Amino acid sequence: MKRVTFVFMLILPFLVGSQAVLAESAGKANAISVVKLSEGALPLDMSIAREVWASPQELLRVRLRIGFPINALLNQTIVYVNQQAQVNYILPINADWLEFGYTKLVVSDGARSLILPKDGVIIQIAATTSQLQELVAHAFQADPIHYHKIRTTQLPEGWSLVTEEYLPKGNISELERNLNGKIRTALVQEFIVRRLQIKVKCFHCDSDRTAEELADLLNHRHNPIVKTTAESSGSVVVSAESQDEELNSAALALANLKPNEVSRGSH
């Protein structure tokens, strides 16, 4: 398998003091060292064949290519039987660029790889098989919303991802006022399907009970135009919002919810 590369339609300008960033990158790379997979964290029969840190010159080229400033980048090659996975660890310069970079990578490269943010690092996983990609992804034990959301690799014909970003804390606080628990994180995906817009939201709650409450709350929202359908699986809730209930059901069918764990709130 060829080394993973990034392809972007847009290159966004940014201003970064190159010398300061390069001098700082060695220390910042510790964040990647904490997150990156080690042999002990991998499933049986899986091993790390190679690790390569980007040089200062490569970092500059990558920044221009991906369109946001980064402090460090590590590429890992993982082998499993006759299969291979490539993992890129990308460290943006701060939290603001983390969210921007995550959204940009998901929209531009999500059809070819799985993107996960963890502890300030953006992780990109590409593999020769979807099974291996899932095995590597779950080894990170990232926020569960990233294992339940709709993947761009799963989209049927006619579906396109417009954006994917974290829900503002103000929106989360508004929902929490009607719950007995807390929402830890929330992600919203926006799709265009046959000229119709649909929003799919993934919520990670502090307990299964809170997730069931949230699914029920969302299903009881009254809006004559926008219909909401929500399901919970463990501590995760996935909701779909559009003008078409059948489209909502199709979206939830694409979400990675295990049937034996799903609880649908009553309408």
Plain-language structure description:
This protein has 267 residues and is α+β, with helices and mostly antiparallel strands. It has 2 domains: 125 residues, no CATH class; 119 residues, Phosphorylase Kinase, domain 1. The protein is 33% helix and 33% strand. The strands form 2 sheets. It has a 6-stranded antiparallel beta sheet with strand order 6-7-8-10-9-11. The radius of gyration is 19 Å and the shape is globular. The termini are far apart. The N terminus and C terminus are likely disordered.
Q: Key features?
A:
2 domains, globular, 11 strands, Phosphorylase Kinase, domain 1, 33% strand, 267 residues, five-stranded antiparallel sheet, alpha+beta, Pilus formation protein N-terminal domain-containing protein, signal, six-stranded antiparallel sheet
Count of DSSP-assigned helices: 8
Tell me the overall shape. globular
Percent helix range: 25-40%
Q: Biggest sheet, strands in spatial order?
A: 6-7-8-10-9-11
Secondary-structure element string: HEHEEHEEHHEHEEHEEHE
Gap between N and C termini: 48 Å
Regarding quaternary structure, how should these chains be classified?
A: single chain
Largest sheet: 6 strands, antiparallel
Count of the domains:
2
**Computed structural class:** alpha+beta
Q: What fraction of the residues are assigned to beta strands by DSSP?
A: 25-35%
